[in-house]
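Team,

Forwarding the record for the chain on the shared tracking sheet. I've put the sequence and predicted structure together so nobody has to dig through attachments.
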Amino acid sequence: MSGEGLVLIGSVGLERLGARGWQPQLVGGLTLGADPVAYAIAAAARAGGVALDAFTVRTQPKDHGTGRRIEGCFVPGARVVIVEDVLTTGRSALDAIAAVEREGGHVVGVLTVVDRQEGGRAALEQAGYQVEALVTARDLGLG
């Protein structure tokens, strides 16, 4: 959540979306890990003149206020990339995907900062979703 980290993740994340050919309207995922990643990418996009907004998926809907599970700039029918800080089992991403699809979003892929290489990519790909990792545990000398 440092300013330097947000600038780095935002620019590299945005570049990877382009390299993949993904053209989402929105980025977001399960709070709290996905939040700074999504906001950083949306800010980098806006700074570059690209329209890309962010949203947050709550772990549970609030029992007051709007009572929604998805907060932020989400709109049904939008092309979405689910983001993660760390991909381990894939459960958080799959939970976010289910919430987004239930509300009418179209998930075009999953972007994670770090893939721990512990089965998450396989689980997501088996469910039919493309995965892009900025780095892997192996890249970092961990595993």
